UniProtKB/TrEMBL annotation:
Highest taxon above the source species: Bacteria
Xref: PROSITE patterns: DEHYDROQUINASE_II
UniProt site positions, description: Transition state stabilizer: R18
GO molecular function terms listed in the Swiss-Prot or TrEMBL record: 3-dehydroquinate dehydratase activity
Sequence positions that bind substrate: N74, H80, D87, I101, S102, R111
Matching InterPro entries: DHquinase_II (IPR001874), DHquinase_II_CS (IPR018509), DHquinase_II_sf (IPR036441)
Pathway assignment: Metabolic intermediate biosynthesis; chorismate biosynthesis; chorismate from D-erythrose 4-phosphate and phosphoenolpyruvate: step 3/7
Biological process, per Gene Ontology: amino acid biosynthetic process; aromatic amino acid family biosynthetic process; chorismate biosynthetic process; quinate catabolic process
Organism listed in the record: Thermolongibacillus altinsuensis
Name used for this protein in its record: 3-dehydroquinate dehydratase
Catalytic reactions of this protein: 3-dehydroquinate = 3-dehydroshikimate + H2O
Family that this chain belongs to: Belongs to the type-II 3-dehydroquinase family.
Keyword Kinase attached: no
Species classification: Bacteria, Bacillati, Bacillota, Bacilli, Bacillales
Active site: Y23 (proton acceptor), H100 (proton donor)
Amino acid sequence: MIRFLLLNGPNLNRLGKREPHIYGSETLADLEKQLSEFASEHGVELTCYQSNYEGALIDQIHRAEAHYKGIIFNPGAFTHYSYALRDAIASVRTPVIEVHISNIHAREPFRHQSVIAPVTVGQIVGLGVMGYRLAILALLEMIEGREE
C-alpha cells in the first residue's frame, strides 16, 4: 500500500473554531477522518500529524523519506518565513505538495509570499479542504507515473 504523510502546521488544530468564515466549520479531526477515508478508497494509507512547533514538523519531514511516498503539507503561517522548513523539504527526495485552505494570494500582503513553494512539486490554494483531496490525487498520479 502507498503511504502518504499529511502535515498541518501552526493553528490548524483550531480548525472549526478559528475564523470559520475563512477556514470553515470542520475540525481538524473531521478533516483527518475524511481524508483518511478518501485516501483509503484510493489505495493510500494516510498518516496525519499536526504541530504548532517548527522543529517537530522538520523532524517529520526528515523521517518521511524512509516511510512515505509523498507529503501533503499545510505549513500555516510558517509558509511565509520558515527557511528551516524550506530547507528540510529541499533535503528529502519525497515529493511535497503545499496546501492552503484559503487563497493566500488574495489575503493580506504578508501572506502572498511562500518560501516553501519553490521546493515543492506544487501548491494548491483557495479550494477549501478539497485542496487536500486534490493533493492526494496529484501525488498518486506522480507516484504511479514514476513506478511504471
